[in-house]
Amino acid sequence: MKPNFKMEVQVEIKDKNGKVIKRSQKKLCRSYLRQLIDFLQAINSTTAGSIKDTSGNAKTFAFLASGWADRLMSAIAPSTNTLYGILVGTGASPVNVSDFAMQTLIAHGDTSTKLNYGAVSVGAVAIVGSTAKFTIARTLTNNSGADINVTEIGLVEACSGYAQSIFYAMIEHTLLSFTVVNGTSGTVTYTISVTV
């Protein structure tokens, strides 16, 4: 039986002119993390939840008397920001449900070992037959002078909870290998869908 809720990820590598030179097959993500379940529990409860941020600290996330404005989440990170959104790294250890951060984050920049992080975009919901879906995407450009091998990707949400300043929590973490050749860019796209 096929899952009726799923998240898939795909990578496209483009040359400096924007031409696609390599496209991976879509990979079914099977590495949802504890923080995702904590969020789902908290938004369906009147009890404040404790959610681990990307530094490993417990943060409060709750819907209380002041309303929905106290419970916001977003993956739309601006360019250069590596605190949230789609992130990439060089870690290779097996993913664990209790993971809360990238193993070895690739930093933003245009020098050795760094990738230039573009802004994250979130697409509108599309209905195709009996499936509803949307995408989350980010382009990473390699101006470092050498090829960069990516081995892990993650999806991190910027969050605010009741009486809580903004914090960042990773909800998905997948081992995925691809190379961003010097002078090219790689676009990582998550597709999230439900089918009835």
Summarize the structure.
It contains one helix and 14 strands, in the order βββαβββββββββββ. With 196 residues, it is mainly β. It has one domain.
Question: Can you tag this structure with a few keywords?
Answer:
196 residues, mainly beta, 4-stranded antiparallel sheet, 8-stranded antiparallel sheet, single chain, 1 helix, globular
DSSP strand (E) fraction?
Answer: 35-45%
Structural class: mainly beta
Order of helices and strands, N to C? EEEHEEEEEEEEEEE
Give the % helix: under 10%
Overall structural domain count: 1
Estimate the global geometry from the Cα principal axes: globular
Kindly report the average pLDDT value.
Answer: 89
Treating each run of at least 4 consecutive H or I residues as one helix, how many helices?
1
Are there runs of 5+ residues with pLDDT below 50, and where? none
Q: How many beta-strand elements?
A: 14
Radius of gyration: 17 Å
Largest sheet: 8 strands, antiparallel
Q: Termini separation (Å)?
A: 12 Å
Task: Describe this entry's structure for a reader.
It is built from one helix and 14 strands. It is mainly β and 196 residues long. It has one domain. The strands form three sheets. Strands 1, 2, 3, 8, 9, 10, 11 and 14 form an eight-stranded antiparallel sheet that branches. Strands 6, 7, 12 and 13 form a four-stranded antiparallel sheet that branches. A hairpin with a 5-residue loop joins strand 1 and strand 2 (20-23). The mean pLDDT is 89.
List the helices and strands and how they pair.
Blueprint: E1 5-14, E2 20-23, E3 27-28, H1 34-43, E4 49-52, E5 58-61, E6 72-74, E7 85-89, E8 116-117, E9 121-122, E10 126-128, E11 131-141, E12 148-160, E13 167-180, E14 185-195
Antiparallel strand pairs: 1-2, 1-3, 1-14, 4-5, 6-12, 7-12, 8-11, 9-11, 10-11, 11-14, 12-13
